[in-house]
Write a structure and sequence with these properties.
The chain is α/β, with parallel strands linked by helices and about 450 residues long. It contains 18 helices and 14 strands.
Length: about 450
């Protein structure tokens, strides 16, 4: 029998909120974690991106809060500012029935605004370890009233060198607090952290076989390094891309690739570490609203992005880490929707591809790149579809008068149409169909 949110022990108010947000049934991580956290247990969870872990820890945390008390009672630590913003927004949405005050704190922004918010009183703080420690040292953030602590994506905090900072922060919180730790993998350092700072935690483990979702079609293309841009261009022409996340290995590479694609007329922007926080948030708003269809990012910058309906994830550069592959492709095929994950693999990287397949317990299908003829045919099909829609829906009186004038001048009707098509498709010359070496 399927579980419901009301059967997990959540309050009527919280059940109503998640129902209004469109949540129908709890995910496996929510089904296991929520009752345990509501019962006061610590939870050690292995959970990937897209499994619903934010709601799994946020909803029980909200149930613990006393909204008459304005010192922080909940603390969530995240590896990146993007994830901090996402989690804070989610907790705010879930907690609207409780008038909860949530503050994301992270580097790259002025201390003054965050300190003012803390002085005004907040219930939940969501932050990156470095900025949290800074505000503790400034005396602006006091954690002595914290009832619940969440370490989100602990493996990433370990990878980024934050584990010592995390321990420093945990020592500032009451010993009797509730602690939840979520990580893509439970490595030895993560388990040692849990042993030191958690009390008899309930462990939730997701087997490797569920690390990638069935709704995501995974395939790869074998190409030479020098031909990757040509291969990507062909795929963007032929695939039914409504929105795509393209992963590059470095911020310089992400910026350069986005600039090249932009020059070819694609609605694309980059997300990288050299941008200000305000600029990054503007890019994300444009992507979520559909004004930009393609986002080129690095793993760190894309960590924690909460974007619905990403049709394609494209690994322009293969990830160095099999876990990063899982995180990347977890951005598509979410909430029951189908998605496509494409990886460009150079001959030297084939062995690493097998490592990823072994890690995920899934095979990745090799496919053949679209040919020049495929690209040309797809361009023609799209043009004919658009033209047909225009003919069916539009009043073309003004345009017909121009056509009639040209016919009176002695031009052939078919040649007039052909010339008009060439003019209207002139932008396609921005997108050369280059040779690709496989």
């Amino acid at each position: 029998m399927s579980q419901t949110f009301s059967s997990l022990g959540l309050s009527t108010e919280l059940v109503q909120v998640v129902t209004e947000l469109g949540y129908e049934q709890p995910t496996p991580i929510q089904t296991e974690a929520i009752p345990m956290l509501l019962a006061g247990r610590d939870v050690l969870g292995q959970a990937q991106t897209g499994t619903g872990k934010t709601a799994a820890f946020a909803l029980p945390m909200l149930a613990l809060l006393n909204n008459q008390q304005h010192a922080p009672q909940g603390l969530v630590l995240t590896p990146t500012r993007e994830l901090a913003i996402q989690v804070a927004e989610a907790i705010y949405r879930y907690g609207r029935a409780y008038n909860v005050r949530v503050l994301p704190i992270y580097g790259g922004t002025a201390y003054s605004r965050q300190i003012k918010r803390l002085n005004d009183g907040v219930h939940v703080v969501v932050g990156t370890p470095g900025r949290v420690i800074d505000l503790i040292q400034k005396g602006a953030l006091k954690l002595n009233q914290v009832r619940a602590v969440v370490l989100d994506e602990a493996d990433e905090m370990l990878k980024m060198g934050f584990l010592d900072d995390v321990e420093t922060i945990l020592r500032e919180t009451p010993a009797e607090r509730q602690t939840a730790l979520f990580s893509a993998t439970l490595s030895d350092p993560i388990r040692r952290l849990a042993e030191r700072y958690m009390h008899n935690p309930h462990t939730i483990t997701i087997a490797h076989k569920t690390m990638t979702v069935a709704q995501t079609e995974q395939r790869y293309y074998l190409v030479e390094e020098s031909s990757k841009l040509a291969a990507l261009s062909r795929l963007l022409e032929v695939e039914d891309v409504t929105s795509a996340l393209i992963f590059a290995r470095t911020k310089v590479g992400a910026s350069k690739l986005a600039e090249t694609l932009m020059g070819r007329g694609y609605p694309v922007e980059a997300l990288h570490g050299d941008m200000s926080q305000e600029a990054r948030e503007t890019v994300l708003r444009r992507f979520r609203s559909g004004r930009v269809h393609i986002l080129v990012a690095t793993d760190v910058m894309a960590r924690g992005l909460d974007i619905e309906s990403v049709s394609h994830v494209i690994n322009f550069d293969m990830p160095y880490d099999a876990e990063d592959y899982v995180h990347r492709i977890g951005r598509t095929g979410r909430a029951g929707r189908e998605g496509v994950a494409i990886t460009l693999v150079t001959p030297r990287e084939r062995r690493w591809l097998r490592t990823i397949e072994a890690f995920t317990s899934q095979s990745i299908t090799q496919a053949n790149l679209p040919t020049v003829a495929d690209v040309v045919a797809r361009r023609d099909d799209r043009f004919k579809t658009s033209l047909g829609e225009l003919l069916a829906q539009s009043d073309l009186g003004r345009e017909l008068s121009v056509v009639n004038a040209l016919l009176e001048m002695g031009y052939d009707a078919a040649e007039v149409a052909a010339a008009a098509i060439r003019m209207s498709r002139a932008a396609e010359t921005q997108r050369p169909i280059e040779e690709s070496r496989e």
